[in-house]
Specification:
Elements: H1 15-21, E1 29-33, E2 39-43, H2 68-76
Antiparallel strand pairs: 1-2
Length: about 80
């Protein structure tokens, strides 16, 4: 399995590896080089150990379909 290094030094972790380590977007990973010179990747921990996102609890909660004019009137304090 191989991948290509971008000009920014980034690579895509192949899906088979992501699945094996249960990596999801936002997961922290740690890289190390062993004695044989192989690069080893480890999942650092659960996402919950990271600083909580203050907006996470509000994401996807709005179920009101606002019309632009109505929303702008509300934000401007117009009656």
């Amino acid at each position: 399995m191989s991948t290509t290094l971008t000009s920014k030094g980034q690579v895509t972790i192949p899906k088979q590896i992501r699945d094996a380590l249960n990596l999801t977007p936002g997961c922290a990973v740690d890289f190390a080089v062993n004695r044989e010179g192989d690069v080893v990747i480890h999942k650092v921990g659960a996402r919950s150990s990271r600083k909580p996102d203050i907006f996470e609890s509000a994401r996807g909660k709005a179920d009101v379909k606002w019309r632009t004019d109505d929303l702008m009137a509300l934000l401007r304090g117009e009656d």
